[in-house]
Structure of STAS domain-containing protein:
Amino acid sequence: MGNVDYVYPSANVESSHRVAIPPPQPFVTTLKNSMKETFFPDDPLRQFKNQPTSRKFVLGLQYVLPIFEWGPRYTLEFLKSDLVSGITIASLAIPQGISYAKLANLPPILGLYSSFIPPLVYAMMGSSRDLAVGTVAVASLLTASMLGAEVNATENPTLYLHLAFTATFFAGVFQALLGLLRLGFIVDFLSHATIVGFMAGAATVVCLQQLKGILGLEHFTRGTDIISVMRSVFGQTHKWRWESGVLGCCFLFFLLVTRYFSQRKPKFFWISAMAPLTSVILGSVLVYITHAEKHGVQVIGELKKGFQDRSHHRRDSSRRRNSSRRSFSMFKNYHIDGNKEMIAFGMMNIAGSCTSCYLTTGPFSRSAVNYNAGCKTAVSNIVMAIAVMFTLLFLTPLFHYTPLVVLSAIIIAAMLGLINYQEAIHLWKVDKFDFVVCMSAYIGVVFGSVEIGLVLAVAISVMRVLLFVARPKTFTLGNVPNSMAYRNTEQYTNASNVPGILILEIDAPIYFANSNYLRERIKRWIDEEEDRKNLQGKVACNMSYSIWPLLGAQALALANPGSEVMKKMNKSELIEKIGQEWIFLTVGEAVGACNFMLHTTKPDLVKEEQGTWNNV
Amino acid sequence: MGNVDYVYPSANVESSHRVAIPPPQPFVTTLKNSMKETFFPDDPLRQFKNQPTSRKFVLGLQYVLPIFEWGPRYTLEFLKSDLVSGITIASLAIPQGISYAKLANLPPILGLYSSFIPPLVYAMMGSSRDLAVGTVAVASLLTASMLGAEVNATENPTLYLHLAFTATFFAGVFQALLGLLRLGFIVDFLSHATIVGFMAGAATVVCLQQLKGILGLEHFTRGTDIISVMRSVFGQTHKWRWESGVLGCCFLFFLLVTRYFSQRKPKFFWISAMAPLTSVILGSVLVYITHAEKHGVQVIGELKKGFQDRSHHRRDSSRRRNSSRRSFSMFKNYHIDGNKEMIAFGMMNIAGSCTSCYLTTGPFSRSAVNYNAGCKTAVSNIVMAIAVMFTLLFLTPLFHYTPLVVLSAIIIAAMLGLINYQEAIHLWKVDKFDFVVCMSAYIGVVFGSVEIGLVLAVAISVMRVLLFVARPKTFTLGNVPNSMAYRNTEQYTNASNVPGILILEIDAPIYFANSNYLRERIKRWIDEEEDRKNLQGKVACNMSYSIWPLLGAQALALANPGSEVMKKMNKSELIEKIGQEWIFLTVGEAVGACNFMLHTTKPDLVKEEQGTWNNV
């Protein structure tokens, strides 16, 4: 731009800055590129390029089973760290596993099984170093509500159990397929705000369900919405058991205090990590001594109750998983391939469903503990699995006297951490619409059901994406003082309009879904300009994708059209229609040319642009 | 930019070009603005501003009933034009109306009724001057296939008839509601390519159905897919009636020749417009003279057959309607409010359903004839309605001898015009993916059913929009020789990279749905640059919406972030994190600063950017 003046001198300077039409490429190349961008944006096979076959084999093995990559580099130093973190997460996994299995209406021992085989599979196939495998509350609740709609868990426990395994199996197949087909990006369509709302809603629902355990109620509504639960709770106040309530509140207080302390002093993370197991032990000892099980405090009882063997679940937690993996890898600065992880999770659940496990994933809270405990590799998962195995072999009788109310307290404490009210406040500050979306998902879950909330969250997210596309921002540009730059006049309040020229910018690519809107919106910009008697016949458009007839405007100049626009305009012979001389490299040049025209030609000589461009 | 040099001199020049944070606006204002942009992009109430109450009332009346706007300005000159065009479209409406009613399995006279009341309603409420109201083949076929799935039209004609009226009524309510709620933009999500494919497919299906009439078959498959039809046709070759076939082919040839002639010489548009009526008259006379009805040529018979009275339909044709209205208004350069038209169509169908009409809309072909015949206002619709009324009152007995085969020929001739093969070729040339979309919709309709094709078309369109958002283009910028402009190196092959600096541009706003992809894609850009040993620690990002941590890059500069980005970065205190001094007005300034840094500081002194930005 340096040597192009504001007042446009002649046509031959501009020809040196001609807007390029991108070189034509064969259809196959274009298709290949766009497929690659769609399904392999991170180019996972880049490392295989220009390698000998033997190396390719090793790399391939390492790609499928990352354990072969970090295994050879494993040191005793690492083992020490992994041992500590593995035992820490095991102490969390055991009480949580039992609690969540109860939540899913499954035998409690399934929670322990689910912390045994799946972590081993993940340790071989997963690429995250910090992720701790286990069951999660929301998936457990969904299992209970979806399977419960088909089969009553107490009346027909065997069928219910088999259904749960089948659901886990198909969830695994589904996850593995999504990963293999590189469709993991689908979860990106769930916006952060909807996830915050949905998770908080699900956590609230789970907490509400725990009122049954805390108050020692025997009959409880099967609905999950707040209204049914409240009616059920306050409809039988005479059946509340104070022993149970007091015990529950004490443990909940203990858990919350330890967590608060650990949050304040991250070095003592193990205090909050050990708290659930401590509660279980304390609670069991207390019941054993006082025989409270005979005074209205329900206990787990025999842990090993009949079952063996395989089930449909939802993928809502995958996004969260995804996000938990991503945030940790971001801290440690290594790359996670979401689709590959999807495959690892799928294999984990397929293997799990064949070994009496139900749905497992990588819960954020436990992964955070793992990270804080200083884990180095996925060996921490192996350590956890071994610790759980020992528990299964030798310690199950100890859980006989564990009061259910302690499990409820553990669940509530974990769930309260999922209600991310700070994030909701942040959303309110940064983007009000996001806040509304978040609250809708929350209210959908709490007042409707988890399924309604899920559908609502997905529908709002997709609608929002569609609205984004349908209504791109357009704004007028003005000259920023002391520069050649033209910028949004709303953002730069000191930018000045160029008299007689309307400079528009479209802040998004133009697709078929917004071309009609943009046509009308630009028409309105021109009408409004004319109302102000400001427009003498020129419009300079700074657009990045396309062009269409500007009704009423007397001339149209394009500045910096993108390669797609130039390609399409070239193929539809629109460049000739507009005139190559009206397409500029920069807004400055376009404005210069318009100014030159304005001051040298009569208005009625200015050429009129009319044409149809329906095919975007 | 003029006084800013390529080599960056000091920090105080840049401060004069500081990127502005848009002035804060109260939430209510923002909400109001975004609601207005979403639902009232064309600002239909702008004319009411600053007007006295009486004028507002007049404007309001004119807004709701446009007839009050153009009525007072109506001249005899206009009437002359409208008379000619009205009679022309009536001569087309009568035979087509009868034919399409047959296609919908409804009594033929309903086709005439539907060209009587709805045009009168539209003449009052519609804003298009060229649109001719009437029934269309695709909607008729859909009516037949959707109602046919519930009720057999020959076994239970009264119920079928009532269902058709009910469908029309609810279609009208649905249209009016869409318009009132300003949701007309929903139809924009059907891409042009899918509509071309869908319409061609529907036209093919309609043509295939006409083989029954042409070949004089009495039994015919109820399926609409090509395989069932072909099996039905070739499974009863012994029942083909040559008399019927010969007659049909002759009339089809006549219709196609007249249309070809009129297309070549637009002045003789009336030849092709009159051809259908001529065929009907010729055919009827021929049958009357030769008594061909006793030799296998089926005739309409008694036109007035029992019915009185009210019905659910699909909105697929609304987009086409929309597009037909828009293209004509574009030629005559006046504004059409799509949502207002939606209301007019809805009222027309609600009124129609109460007066024995079935679904009407603004068929493109008839509107084109209306336009070519030189219509000036909606009075041409009134003229057509009167002509149809005369036909209903005095001429119905004439249709007794009209052979069905002529109606089939008329339908086929009209349908062949809907198969827009030139557009398909154009799509192939301009955008291969659009072509694939178009063919999928076509194949879905022809080999599946109209419903399958419709669902396929909508699904493909929405998926495409979602993909557009999920995978925005990113590209590297280079310096265009002899200018200060930085442009896409793929488009401008002569643009040169700045050594040691990677300049990225993101060609779309950043939403939650693409932020993960962009993070990974940018990571890959940086990795690839590092492989080439080209990157010494600087990334200049030309982005319009957001920012996120650039793993591995040693410094990050932002050029020209949009107002939304600045607002969000400000609110999340990210500006301080990046440093106001690393945000630039132009790419040139950012590159200058990076270069200055590169040449004056050691690489390990370059500040590192790390941060989380999940909340887009």
